[in-house]
Amino acid sequence: MSSMWGEKIRLSIFGGSHTEAIGVTIDGLPAGEAIRMEEVLAQMARRAPGQDLTATTRKEADAPRVLCGLLNGVTTGAPLTAVIENTNQRSRDYENLRVTPRPGHADYTAAVKYGGYQDVRGGGHFSGRLTAPLVFAGAVARQLLSRRGITVASHVVSVGRCKTGDTPFDPVNVPMELLNRLSGEYFPVIDPAAKLAMREEIEKARLEKDSVGGIVECAVIGMPAGAGEPMFGGAENLFASILFGIPAVKGVDFGAGFSAAYLRGSENNDTFYYNENGEVKLRTNYSGGILGGITSGMPLIFQTAFKPTPSIGREQDTVNLQTKENTKLVVEGRHDPCIVPRAAPVVEAAACIASLELLKQSGML
Ligand SMILES: Cc1cc2nc3c(=O)[nH]c(=O)nc-3n(C[C@H](O)[C@H](O)[C@H](O)COP(=O)(O)O)c2cc1C
């Protein structure tokens, strides 16, 4: 299993949904960085379940306990490890999934790979719960970034087939005040009317015992020009590799992304100019802040697509891996009809960690 990420800022995420605890070790943090725990807890609260009907009704305290790496609230330079106890397990909900895999979930592929020995309880190591330690690590990274003038936030731009989506970021001008507001909210949106419409779409799916996916748009501002490498060491590669580690992520695109394929060069090229301070700027930002894998100094903008929650309350076709027969499955337990509102802070956490890694790899930290 590869539950480790990074070269300079190395993360190791451990545990499963129903093990005694889950947690993270962050190696490579500079020493002497004060970490405000109330800000870490605020980020974790944005991800925690049980906040409203768009999320699972399962309640988890998500209280991290720092074992090492901080002394009097300041990083020591040694690995920082935090554990979060799992307090709300209902393991009996899941035992049948060992033989009758859920369509859309990892039960089948895990059974093939681990020969049936995998922990199926609550999705085990495949659970969305593993994003809690990721958010912890992201909240630590966010504080280091903020001290260096870098701000990260996201919003939910669309949910399912809901016709009303949120207003996208202006890719050239992303105000810091907007990012500060969004990064403090559960279900962050720029336009509150869009949130109402998206909530209705989620509620409709819930009442129909179904689920919906959606898209989170994220912005990183203040990232200096010149970070990243060409080809395999690019900023896009780095962000994409951590974002695809988030369960249920099926797509990541930067700037104009897939829609750049429909533009002409004359439309898609971000032309350069000198501003009044003699700095090179780009008039547009179709490239999403990255050219040749290297940051341009423009806002880094990317979208992350989440599939609909696999576990739904409807009867579905599956197989019985023991009797080798076709069968039906109704998934028991508590599940988010849409994980996207809870996933927004997870995307931000991944972006914070990737940004810190990018700075460190580029000798800027
Ligand atoms: C915050 C979060 C919460 C999630 N909650 C659930 C859930 O309640 N039920 C479920 O079936 N999947 C949930 N997922 C998604 C599954 O973990 C994921 O689809 C599964 O592990 C298969 O991996 P894949 O979709 O990346 O292929 C959640 C994902 C995230 C990020």
Structure description:
It contains 8 helices and 17 strands. It has one domain: 4-Layer Sandwich (Chorismate synthase, AroC fold). The mean pLDDT is 95. It has a 5-stranded antiparallel sheet with strand order 1-2-3-7-4, with helices on one face. It has a 4-stranded antiparallel sheet with strand order 8-9-15-10. The protein is α+β, with helices and mostly antiparallel strands and 365 residues long. It has helices at 37-47, 107-114, 131-147, 176-182, 192-207, 235-243, 265-268, 340-361, and strands at residues 4-5, 10-14, 21-27, 64-68, 70-71, 74-75, 80-85, 151-159, 214-221, 249-254, 272-274, 280-282, 290-291, 294-295, 300-306, 316-320, 325-329. It starts with a strand and ends with a helix. It is globular, with a radius of gyration of 21 Å. Helix 1 (37-47) crosses helix 8 (340-361) and helix 6 runs antiparallel to helix 8. It binds flavin mononucleotide (FMN). Residues 56, 105-106, 123, 126-128, 131, 246-248, 307, 309-311, 335-336, 339, 342-343, 346 line the site of flavin mononucleotide (FMN).
By DSSP (H or I, 4+ residues per run), the number of helices equals: 8
Run of helices and strands: EEEHEEEEHHEHHEHEHEEEEEEEH
The percent of residues in helical segments reads 25-40%
C-alpha geometry: globular
Number of strands: 17
Largest sheet: 5 strands, antiparallel
Number of discrete domains: 1
CATH architecture: 4-Layer Sandwich
Strand content: 15-25%
The class by helix and strand makeup works out as alpha+beta
Mean pLDDT: 95
**Structure ligands:** flavin mononucleotide
Radius of gyration computed on alpha carbons: 21 Å
Tell me, what is the CATH class?
A: Alpha Beta
- What do we call the CATH homologous superfamily? Chorismate synthase AroC
